[in-house]
Amino acid sequence: MSYFNFLKERYPVFFTELNGCGVFCWNGYRKIMLKDLSTAKHCLLVSFIAYHFCRYLVQFNCLREDRIKPCLIAALLHDIGKIDPGVLSIVNNGRRFTDAEKEKVQEHVLIGYRILLRYGFDSDIANIVLYHHESWDGSGYPKGLVGFEIPDLARVLRICDSFGAIVDPTRKSYNGERVVEQAVQDIKSKAGIWYDFELSCHFCDFMSKFSPHFKEFFNCIYDQEYTTR
Ligand SMILES: [Fe+2]
Ligand SMILES: [Fe+2]
Predict the structure, then answer these.
(1) Domains of the chain
(2) 20 to 30 A Cα–Cα from 90, which one of 27, 101, 111, 202?
(3) What is the whole-number distance in angstroms between the Cα of residue 1 and the centre of ligand 1?
(4) For position 196, what pLDDT does the model report?
(5) Backbone angles phi, psi at 185, to 5 degrees
């Protein structure tokens, strides 16, 4: 059974929410799955984190409920720009990027933004994808936006995306049980630098309660038994 079908059966509520995101969202995700399984798994993991983090923020009146769905769609498709052949060949070449390659890979945000607009998503969602690598201190890309210039859900996604990337065993050396705790520490250490300070505090609080669910979902995605297809 593929990781996807397995998760669908195991997390019916989350997948019902994803289903509600519409056919264009699924078509986009299917494209990622076909082109690059590693990116597809990362996107699904990030959408799982982002969905639950948004719900947590809503609970504490830090986010409006109608912002959950746009964030879920943007999270599931945030790295769709990486399926661009020019970007994909660099991502998969397995060695350290040259400066020119790094620049090319960074284009995935703009490519993703254009794909989403072409699919008919509104600019609110496309902008979350465009700005998901912007940093609070202005050191991110593509525009070097600072603080609240960065759209709210792009700031949310920035944290969830980093967290998903830090724990991804296909990208980083997996460090067993401590990986989640280390990722939380990493987010904390960059709060107010790369990440919105207040959102980072909420995220660490959220993850202290959510980590058992996260670990279970994470294990299902990356467990060898379910990663063969
Ligand atoms: Fe990205
Ligand atoms: Fe990502």
Answers:
(1) 3-226 (1.10.3210.10)
(2) 27
(3) 28
(4) 98
(5) -60, -40
Tokens 């020119």 found at: 100
Length in residues, the chain: 229
CA-nearest of 67, 196, 210, 65 to 135 is 196
Residue 170 CA neighbour count, 13 Å, CB half: 18
| Cβ neighbours for 187, distance < 8 A, ≥ 6 positions apart | 159, 162, 163, 195, 200, 203, 204
CA 94 – CA 126 distance, rounded (Å)? 29
| Structure-block tokens of residue 150 | 């960065």
201 alpha carbon – ligand 1 mean position (Å): 22
Q: Does the bond joining 142 to the residue before it have cis omega, within 30 degrees of 0?
A: yes
Instruction: Fill in the amino acid letter for 20.
Output: G
Which ligand gives the minimal distance to the CA of 44?
Answer: 2
| Residue indicated by tokens 């490519």 | 111
Q: Whole-prediction pTM value?
A: 0.93
Q: Which candidate, 45, 39, 16, places its Cα nearest to that of 218?
A: 45
> How remote is the CA of residue 149 from the centroid of ligand 2, in Å?
21
Q: Which residues surround ligand 1, an ion (CB under 5 A)?
A: 79
Pick the more confident residue, 220 or 87: 87
pLDDT of residue 178: 66
